[in-house]
Each structure stands twice: as C-alpha cells, then as structure tokens.
Amino acid sequence: MKTIQMTIDEPLLYKVDLAIRNLETSRSAFIREALKLALQKYEIRKMEERHAKGYAKYPVEKGEFDIWQDEQVWGAE
Length: 77
Known about the structure:
Helix content is 58%, strand content 0%. It is mainly α.
C-alpha cells in the first residue's frame, strides 16, 4: 500500500467522519471503498458509451430479435 496526501473541504470531511463512526471503520478504509466504487462507476459509464456507439454505428434492424419473442416470459397468465 502507498500513503498519499489529499485535500478535502471541511463540510465533506465532516460527513465522512460521521459515516465512518456509524460504519465503525477508518477514513482510509472508507475512502478506499469510495474510490473502488467510483472506478466501477467510471468503467460502467465507459462500457455504456461503447455500447451506445456500437448501436449508433450498427442499429438494430427491423425483425432482428423477433425469433426470441416466444422465448420471453412476461409473468403468470
């Protein structure tokens, strides 16, 4: 692990400190978890952008997924 220094505004630090007391964790552990979640969100956003670009470049054609219509389950009938 590497030690880093960061700047954080006091109102945000206050909220972090409240959270860590309730979670019974440390600032470092809390911030590590927050960074992991932020990176996951970033990766999801990148995948969604690639997905959208793919559909923009190769749009769904009429009837392309009709074969699956009978396979869908929409609940009890």
